[in-house]
Specification:
mainly alpha
Length: 86
């Protein structure tokens, strides 16, 4: 990563331990890489949901519950906390 910024985050202890175990078992090269990948996954998902919302707004509509359920299923978001679309 050429253009990076150091940030500090707090995680619940159980999550931090899970990440350490994943790194220790070779699931990620280090904690920073794991967190960067997790954040990128969330950003990609949020962007896709935002684009879906924008497409509907351009048509003067709101996505139906069925559309949102489909999008959440495709994007791996299974609850209301998973994305910005309301």
């Amino acid at each position: 990563m050429s253009d990076t910024e150091r940030v500090s985050i707090e995680l619940p202890a159980a999550q931090a331990e899970q990440v350490r175990r994943i790194v220790a078992s070779g699931g990620a090269p280090d904690i920073s890489t794991y967190v960067v990948e997790a954040i990128q996954t969330r950003l990609d998902r949020d962007q896709a949901l935002s684009e879906l919302r924008d497409l509907f707004e351009r048509k003067g509509q709101k996505p139906s519950a069925e559309h949102l359920a489909w999008a959440r299923d495709v994007l791996g978001v299974n609850d209301e906390k998973g994305g910005p679309v309301s």
